[in-house]
Amino acid sequence: MGCRSQMITRATIAMALTMFSITISASAQCPSGFIDLGEVTATTPPGRYKEVHVTRQIALPPGIRIDDSYHQLSIQAASDGAASDMRARQIPAGFQLMPGGPAGGAWWSIDNPQLGEVATSGNDTDHLVFRIDLYANSGARGPSVAQNSLVAPPSVWVRVCVKTIS
Q1: Which of 16, 50, 77, 136 could form a Cys-Cys staple with 45, CB 3.0–4.6 A?
Q2: How many CB atoms lie within 10 A of CB 154?
Q3: pTM
Q4: How many of the other CB atoms lie within 10 Å of CB of 33?
């Protein structure tokens, strides 16, 4: 096997591994022992260099008992080209966040994760909500919309998982 064919083989393997890792991260699931609270997303408007900056929240199930001994050790809070000051130590105890966004020229970041209580009216008890700030910029390419779809895919997403006590 010649040098050129070895390079082609290595490039093909590298491409396959990259595609595999993208597929794995795009379908990220919560680790064993965690409850999947869902995913928060934001989508940029159509066009070049369009931005979205929003705060999203997820309500926690009533009566949930969070295992506050768990702390996420690391996180990628921004894509290449974006910025975030967020560090893993800022993630509330008991939570595991799995952020992501599309590749290919778009930027995304997450920041300011918080666990808080929301007061309810009447005889209902207060309930917990998880909040996080999401940012995305479409970059030089606007988001692509599938031909059979009227909605662009999310520009940034975060899978929110919580470790509970039995």
Answers
A1: 50
A2: 21
A3: 0.76
A4: 12
Q: 2-25 b/e with 16+ CB inside 10 Å = b?
A: eeeeeeeeeeeeeeeeeeeeeeee
d(C-alpha 164, C-alpha 33), whole Å: 7
Residue numbers of the chain with a pLDDT score lower than 70: 1-27, 121-125, 141-151
Residues 28-75: pLDDT tens digits? Answer: 799 999 999 999 999 998 888 899 999 999 999 998 999 999 999 999
Q: Return the closest-CA partner of residue 78 out of 38, 27, 142, 135.
A: 135
Distance between alpha carbon 44 and the CA centroid of its chain, in Å? Answer: 15
Lookup result for tokens 């007061």 = 119
